[in-house]
Amino acid sequence: MFDRDDLDHFCEKAITGLVLATIAVAAIFFGGARNSEFAVVAGMMAAALLVWLVRFWVNPSHRFLLHPAVWPVLGFVGYAIWRTTHAEVPYVARQELLLVLVAASAFFLALHNLHSQETTAGISHVLACLGCLLGAYAIIQALGQSQRVLWLVQPPDYFKRAGGTFVNPNHLAAFLGLLTPLSVAQFLLGRGKPVVKILHGYSTLMMLGGIGCTMSRGGWAAVALGLGGLLAWVAFRRRELRLPIAILAGLFAVGAFLFFKSSDKAGSRLANLNQQGNRDAGIGRQWIWKPALRMWNDHRLLGVGPGHFDVRFPGYRSPEVQRSPGWVHNEYLNLLTDYGAAGTALAALAIGGFAWGVVRSVKYVERGTSDLGTRGSNRTAFFVGAIAGLGTLGIHCLVDFNLHLPAIALTGAVITGLLASNIRFATERFWLRPGLPGRLIMTALIGSALFWTGPLASKLGREGLWLNQAANQPNISPELLTALTRAAELAPDNPRTAFELGENFRRLSFGGDSDWRKQAATAIQWLEKTIALNPYDAHAHLRLAQTLNWTGDKDRATKAFDQALRLGPNDVAVANAVAWFLLNNGRAAEAKPLLEASLKWNWWDNWAAKDYLAKANSQLGNAGSPGAAN
């Protein structure tokens, strides 16, 4: 016989399992950063939403918890959808929107389905195990000086820095920094069996060790502040724990001292913080923040568009930053730049509503010595640990783009939803029984989300697999070109894939074999498509100019070089290439100031500019010598 209660209970467990599995998949497989893994994450979240929809119809008494943060979150999602429909580079905006939807879905699923005390405690234990696993892997990487991340080769920029499965060590530090306070709070305040406390204590050590091995200065500072605040609060509220907390804080301090004393890399990371041109320098962030502020100043209300900071960066580039930064390396400034004052206001309202709910819930959830004596409480442990974890992540987001990594955004959203659900202990005013009209509205909303995300995730996953195959090819080969072409067929509006195809055909053409003209023509087609998809790409104009010059079309090449220089001011690669073109066309006087500027921007390894400048001076010297006119 059909039992609604049993089916409802099954749906609740299924949602919990899907959410936790999604976090694990995202964290273990490169943070969900690649399209192939992000597609799986989006698909699993879509499945969890579908189960939630079933639960709504199975259990007519299922209620909404309309937390004060709910409306601004929905408003921000709607705003992101609207801005995406008007984006100048739709592919980039669509990727950003999918991440926003995944994070928002995780928040609502946690708020409405994962809030039971048993479920919350179980989530804490699972996250501790996951953090322990990733921290241990990072320690093994550091001890073995491994240059691999699972089956991928570690980027050389992260030499002697352990990234665990996240590739980028800063992101691993942020993820573990989010989870560590949860385990510390469970160890100190939890009511579980001794074996559970041992688990959380061991997980804390592994996660702190992993954070240390990331060599992330922002991670170190954020964790120190987050854990310091947590320990201070618990000591203030629980007098009987002051001695254990003092001992624990002392152990943390001694461990940190021994780590910095024994690690040359850690010392260099701190010593070289402000040294420009050094691999361990951290000064570069300010040269990303300044263009971001100028960008926002030009688009104050609506911003440049979802995910568009990097698209527009070439035109605002600071000379000190020659590579594509990807994001602002400050989530708050990134939000302001991409979404403008309007989007930032909605996000601020959501954060404010969430904070109000936390403050309102404190006296009903977080209890001190006078309330419980020496008894532990899993609810209190999660509450204070989650606040400290989110605070740690919030501090780290001042210097990095952590929320743009699916694993961190998803986990943070789940913890935020669980923390927000505690408002139910303070008041019943936010509960709403939707009835038939509410279930129909909910069905329409979730159905629309599934209708959009399902096909997109499928296409994104297939595109990602082809892009992964292309990335695994060490040289230009038929396999590489086939993989890129297949990816371009699946996502024809991806400007990056079009650029890669154009650049590879250009290189083949410059090899000078018998098909060089055909290869050049193909390169021109792909590069022109790149420009159509992303009109702000200075390097696409530059490669087009070089290819046109190679084919003998000097007039079009001149225009393309000029456009590249206009779109990419302060760009060493653009300045050097344009100067080379000018030198080869007898315009050394125009080339010289470009080369001098290029060397000013990068004086430490800019050998091309030094060589070209010598040639420019030689040409100018010969032109001014006696008899030069003859």
Descriptors:
630 residues, disordered C terminus, two-stranded antiparallel sheet, globular, 72% helix, single chain, mainly alpha
Write the layout of secondary structure elements.
Elements: H1 4-28, H2 35-58, E1 64-65, H3 70-85, H4 90-113, H5 117-144, E2 148-149, E3 152-153, H6 169-189, H7 194-214, H8 217-237, H9 242-262, H10 264-271, H11 286-298, H12 309-312, H13 331-365, H14 369-372, H15 378-396, H16 406-420, E4 431-432, H17 435-471, H18 478-490, H19 495-510, H20 516-533, H21 538-550, H22 554-567, H23 572-583, H24 588-601, H25 607-624
Q: Give the strand tally.
A: 4
Shape summary: globular
* Main sheet strand line-up: 1-4
The biggest beta sheet reads: 2 strands, antiparallel
Structural class: mainly alpha
Low-confidence segments: 625-630
Structure explained in plain terms:
The chain is mainly alpha-helical and 630 residues long. 72% of the residues lie in helices and 1% in strands. The chain contains 25 helices and four strands. It has helices at 4-28, 35-58, 70-85, 90-113, 117-144, 169-189, 194-214, 217-237, 242-262, 264-271, 286-298, 309-312, 331-365, 369-372, 378-396, 406-420, 435-471, 478-490, 495-510, 516-533, 538-550, 554-567, 572-583, 588-601, 607-624; strands at 64-65, 148-149, 152-153, 431-432. A two-stranded antiparallel ribbon has the order 1-4. A two-stranded antiparallel sheet has the order 2-3. Strand 2 (148-149) and strand 3 form a beta hairpin. Helix 6 runs antiparallel to helix 7 (194-214), helix 21 packs parallel to helix 23 and helix 23 (572-583) runs antiparallel to helix 24. The model is unreliable at 625-630 (pLDDT under 50).
